[in-house]
Every structure is written in structure tokens, then in C-alpha cells.
Specification:
Blueprint: E1 3-9, H1 13-24, E2 31-38, E3 41-48, H2 51-54, E4 67-73, E5 88-89, E6 95-103, H3 106-113, H4 124-134, H5 140-150, E7 153-161, E8 166-172, E9 177-181, E10 184-188, E11 200-203, E12 208-213, E13 216-221, E14 232-233, H6 249-255, H7 257-269, H8 273-285, E15 288-293, H9 295-310, E16 315-319, H10 323-326, E17 333-339, H11 345-356, E18 360-365, H12 371-375, E19 378-381, H13 394-411, H14 419-441, E20 446-451, H15 455-470, E21 473-478, E22 495-499, H16 508-515, E23 520-524, H17 540-558
Parallel strand pairs: 15-16, 15-17, 17-18, 18-19, 20-21, 20-22, 22-23
Antiparallel strand pairs: 1-4, 1-10, 2-3, 2-4, 5-6, 6-7, 7-8, 8-12, 9-10, 9-11, 11-14, 12-13
Helix pairs in contact: 3-4, 4-5, 7-13, 7-14, 8-13, 9-13, 9-15, 14-17, 15-17
The structure holds fructose -6-phosphate.
Residues 294-297, 339-341, 344, 347, 391-392, 464, 468, 572-573 line the site of fructose -6-phosphate (F6R).
């Protein structure tokens, strides 16, 4: 969370930074700020709110400057306020700094710093004073190396030095990508921030820092030794993401599902075929398969376990934030991290931890060249394109599809070769009914979604969406568990959505249990003629998920909620 950007070059620094921040806004949208160095002075502007609303407050375009840094914040230490917004400036005004991550020993460092003028409650501000204090012999790099030695926690940091008109960046645990363009060097938390400027990217590894000499990038390790980094060439569409004619990214991204699924199908059959086979072989060869993920990606992992168990492969799924408390990884383990961003801190920690114990890593990610992809022995990309809405929608569908293809490559189970079309119809043919249902449910405060077998992870996923986007308290649960407690909450008209694939008659008695207590049951099932479902039953998990996504969207829209940027959340969770 938090997006950081930096620029050193001949373009308009403020403009480059504002464009980068717009593309990084999914990482946090509490406040934003930029600093540029001009005439050997720092010029800084920051404000609270979303970038579109505060853009004019951050305008420094009139400053002639070749170096600058910017930040979009998701608050961790300290409330959402202008004081706590980044960049932070050192006492003498020479340095400005932006930070993504959490510094664990900031209080200790602050005490040791002694007399400095602190103006915020953040851990990050400590770093800029540290750099100032330790650069007193004039050498910023010495200060950076000392910081890297003493700091505990995670960070990617950009420092602007107004005296030398330079940008320094350093990384440990949070991502830092550097774009090498014809008009300068671009520093950012992710590569999309500068995709319009260059295809050549260097990724910093942990305990590395970078600086600019002349206009050349120099990367060093924490001991000051130069590291030879070869830029990777990234192929991407130069078009900026936009909503086209859609009011919200969430709705646009749900409607993109058929096309991104088609793209994924093609790559799994062609360019990713070898990796699919390698992944399959690794699943077969390892004694222990452990999926790990967070949020929506965890729900995809639960389905992974379901499919693999059916295919005769023992697997389990662990929530990444609890990984260390439950895992027993060893050299017979294949860890399968599933992550849209490939940057979720808890998942990265689980990968690091398992690797140390000798596990192999086979990952499923979306964002190309992400940290998790780079840490893996084999990786499958779900190829869903950039997802802007905080809620994962199209990426969840592509995660499910990838997992289904992996398991069917083991047991030969059927999958719907015409799934993309079936899902297109699912969206189109159910829209009116879903809008009606959204109207009916939009004032509800509590909602239950029940499923069994393959429908259980989907029940949890729909509930998660209802919470984060529609702000409805929703519980997604195993239908058979109702009678062990939750049934006590069912009263007249309590809404209960049941997910009933064809042939799953065992859930019928659970539906009866809630109905006989007065619940208002909504059956998402091919047997309910109110809804259109694809004929093939393997499509049920996909189709019912889409109905849940659409229901969430239309409730949130009806209630005027900030659909793409729900309160208190950020898309990429890069802190623990
Ligand atoms: C929910 C959502 C989050 C993410 C979670 C993991 O709609 O998007 O729950 O699924 O933060 O993120 P990734 O998949 O990037 O690791």
C-alpha cells in the first residue's frame, strides 16, 4: 500500500509525477503529495483526498526541475492528514522523502536521532531526518547504507536531494521498479506507473539502492558494491487504462471477463504451455502442496484444493497472514502462492519462509514481472490485464480458470471449452434480474451466502465483495454448518443466497432449514428459472461468481457508494 514515484530527466517533472501517481492510486488514496527540486531548493505540495480532487493543489508544473518524487498514501502510522501525507522534508530543507512499507524500529531510531523538528506522526519521517543527520559529511550514499544497516522492517524509499538535484531509491521488502527511458529515469512501486514512457525496466532486489550518475542509473548493494542489472524489456499496450463508456472500473472489469478469459485460454494453449506442463509435473512430483494467498486469491486457492483433491493430489490452502503459525513446509513441499498483484506482503513472507525450508515455488499471478513471479521456479500469468477497481473480479475468474486447467491436466476432467461465451451470456442474460434483486436487497444489513463443495469458496468470495464494495455485513459459509450455530440468526425475511449447482441435492435440506425459520432465500441455480446459467455444470462456479459480483455492483451503485475505491482499503497490500 502507498504508491511511490520518482523522476530524473528532461520532461516536466511535476507532470510525469502526477501521471505516475494517478496510475498508482489503487495502492492508496487517503492523500497525495509531490516534491520537486528547483534552483537547489525543495518545492513541495500535498493534500488530503483522491488525486482527481486534489490535483490542482499539487501543481508544481511551473517549477523548472529535473528531479522529483511523489506519493499516494494508505495510512498506517498516523491519521489521514496533510501533516502525515508524504513527502516529508528534513529540518534543513535539503532532503524530501517518500516511503512505502513499515519501519518497525522507527521509535528507537527517532530517539537516537535526538533534536529534529518532527511534524508528522509517521514512521517515514524518521528516515528523512536520519538521512540528513548521517549525510553531514556530505555523502548521501553513506547515510543510505547506514540506514539500510540499521532499519528493521520493509521499505521502498525515494529520497530527493535538492543540493545535488538527484533522486536516490532503496528497497527492502517493498517493490521498486526503475524505468530507463529516452527522456529520463522513472522510479515507482510498479511498472504501470511509467508504462507510457519506456519498455526497459530494472527491478531492485532487497537490500539494493540506486542513484543517478550523469544520467546513468547506478545500482549498488547495501555494502556499496555496484550490482550489474540488465534491464528487462516489457511488452505492453501504451494506452492508459480508462473507463471507456463505463461509469465504474468494477463494472467495466466484470464486462471484460469473457475477453480476458479468451486471452488466457490462448496463452495456456500456446505461449504458457510449457510452463503449464512444468507446473503440472511439479504438482505431481511433490509430496506436499500448500496454496497460500490472501482475500479473493485465497478463495481461488480453496477451489484449487478442491480440484486437486478430486484429481488425487493432496493439497491444502493457508491464509498467508497466518502462514507461519500453521505451515510445515520442507524440501518435499511445493508452495503455490496465488496473487493478483504478486506483491502482497504476507504472501511474499510465506514464499520467503518456505524457500528457506527448502520448498519449491510455483505461483499464479497477474501483474507481469511482480516480486512473487520473480521469486518462483515456475509461474503462470493469468493475463487479465491491469485491474483498477480495488475489488478483484476479472482476475478471480482467471485465477479459477488457471487452477481448473491445471487440475484437469492431471485428471483429464472436463472443462468448458466455450466458457468465455457462456460467461458473456451469463452477464447479459441476468443483468435485469440482478438489478431487481439488488433493489430488493439494497437496504439489508446482514446477508448469508451458503454453498457446499465447489460452491463454498464462491459463497465466501461473494460475501467478501458484498462487505468491501456494498458495505453489507455478509457471511459466506458451508451450508452444512448453519445448524451448528448461525441458524440462531435466521429470522423472518433474513436474506440467504444459496449456491446450488446441478446435481448438488445435499444442500436442499439446508435451504429448507433456513426457509422454515422464515428466511428470504434466493437460489442461484440452473434449476431456478429466474436466472440463466450455462448448460455445462463445470461453468457453475464461474457463472455464480459473476452473479455475485453483479449483485454487489448494483447494490453499491443503488446506494451511491464509492465503488472503485471503497473506504479504508487499497488494492495492493504491501504491509503486514
Ligand atoms: C478483494 C481483493 C483483496 C485481494 C487481496 C490479495 O476484492 O481484491 O482481498 O484479493 O488483497 O491481493 P493479491 O491477489 O494481489 O495478493
Amino acid at each position: 500500500m502507498c504508491g511511490i514515484a520518482g523522476y530524473y530527466g528532461s520532461g516536466n517533472t511535476c507532470e510525469v509525477l502526477l501521471n505516475s501517481l494517478k496510475r498508482l492510486e489503487y495502492r492508496g488514496y487517503d492523500s497525495a503529495g509531490i516534491a520537486v527540486s528547483s534552483d537547489f531548493e525543495i518545492h513541495i505540495k500535498k493534500a488530503v483526498g483522491e488525486l482527481d480532487d486534489i490535483k490542482s493543489d499539487l501543481d508544481l508544473k511551473d517549477k523548472k526541475s529535473k528531479a522529483g518524487i511523489g506519493h499516494t498514501r494508505w495510512a498506517t502510522h498516523g491519521e489521514v492528514s496533510e501533516e502525515n501525507a508524504h513527502p516529508h522534508v528534513s529540518c534543513c530543507g535539503r532532503f524530501a522523502l517518500v516511503h512505502n512499507g513499515i519501519l518497525e524500529n522507527w521509535e528507537e531510531m527517532k530517539r537516537e536521532l535526538g533534536e529534529h523538528r518532527f511534524t508528522s506522526e509517521t514512521d517515514s519521517e524518521v528516515v528523512v531526518h536520519f538521512i540528513e543527520q548521517r549525510s553531514q559529511d556530505g555523502c548521501v550514499e553513506t547515510a543510505i547504507r547506514e540506514f539500510m544497516k540499521e532499519a528493521k522492517g520493509s521499505y521502498s524509499i525515494a529520497v530527493l536531494d535538492s543540493k545535488r538535484e538527484e533522486v536516490f531509491v532503496m528497497k527492502n521488502g517493498s517493490p521498486m521498479a526503475i524505468g530507463i527511458g529516452s527522456d529520463g529515469l522513472f522510479f515507482a512501486s510498479d511498472i504501470h506507473a511509467f508504462s507510457e514512457h519506456t519498455e526497459n525496466v530494472v527491478f531492485l532486489d532487497d537490500n539494493e539502492y540506486a542513484t543517478v550518475r550523469g544520467s546513468e542509473l547506478v545500482v549498488k548493494n547495501h555494502k556499496g558494491k555496484i550490482v550489474d542489472k540488465q534491464p528487462k524489456t516489457i511488452k505492453w499496450s501504451k494506452k492508459s487504462p480508462n473507463k471507456k463508456n463505463f461509469e465504474h472500473y468494477m463494472y467495466k472489469e466484470i464486462n471484460e471477463i469473457p475477453s480476458v478469459l479468451r486471452k488466457l485460454e490462448k496463452t495456456l494453449d500456446r505461449s504458457q504451455k510449457n510452463d503449464l506442463n512444468k507446473f503440472r509435473d511439479m504438482l505431481k512430483e511433490h509430496e506436499k502442496i500448500i496454496f497460500t494467498a490472501s482475500g479473493t486469491s485465497y478463495h481461488a486457492s480453496l477451489l484449487g484444493v478442491y480440484f486437486l483433491q478430486k484429481a488425487g493430489i493432496e493439497a491444502q490452502a493457508l491464509i498467508a497472514s497466518e502462514f507461519k503459525n500453521y505451515e510445515r513446509a520442507d524440501d518435499k513441499t511445493l508452495l503455490v502462492p496465488v496473487s493478483q498483484s504478486g506483491e502482497t506482503k504476507d504472501v511474499i513472507e510465506a514464499v520467503n519462509h518456505s524457500r528457506k525450508k527448502g520448498a519449491d515455488i510455483a505461483s499464479i499471478t497477474n501483474v507481469p514481472h511482480s516480486t512473487i513471479e520473480r521469486m518462483s521456479d515456475v509461474n503462470l500469468r493469468i493475463n487479465a490485464g491491469q485491474e483498477i477497481c480495488v475489488a478483484a473480479t476479472k482476475t478471480f475468474i482467471n485465477q479459477l480458470y488457471t487452477i481448473m486447467r491445471l487440475s484437469s491436466s492431471i485428471d483429464g476432467a472436463n472443462y468448458n471449452a466455450d466458457l468465455a461465451n457462456a460467461l458473456k451470456n451469463t452477464i447479459q442474460k441476468n443483468e435485469d434480474k440482478i438489478k431487481e434483486l439488488a433493489e430488493e436487497l439494497s437496504d439489508e444489513e446482514d446477508l448469508y451466502i451458503i454453498g457446499k463443495g465447489e460452491a463454498y469458496p464462491i459463497a465466501r468470495e461473494i460475501a467478501l465483495k458484498l462487505k468491501e464494495i456494498a458495505y453489507i455485513h455478509a457471511e459466506g459459509m458451508m451450508a452444512g454448518e448453519l445448524k451448528h450455530g448461525t441458524l440462531a440468526l435466521i429470522e423472518d425475511n433474513t436474506p440467504v443466497v444459496s449456491l446450488i449447482p446441478d446435481g448438488n441435492s445435499s444442500i436442499a435440506s439446508n435451504v429448507k432449514e433456513v426457509e422454515s425459520r422464515g428466511a428470504n432465500t434466493i437460489k442461484l441455480s440452473p434449476h431456478n428459472k429466474d436466472f440463466w446459467f450455462p448448460e455445462r455444470n463445470e461453468s457453475f462456479v464461474f457463472a455464480s461468481t459473476i452473479l455475485g459480483f453483479l449483485l454487489t455492483y448494483w447494490i453499491a451503485k443503488r446506494n451511491g457508494l464509492p465503488i472503485d475505491k471503497p473506504r479504508n482499503l487499497a488494492k495492493s497490500v504491501t504491509v503486514q
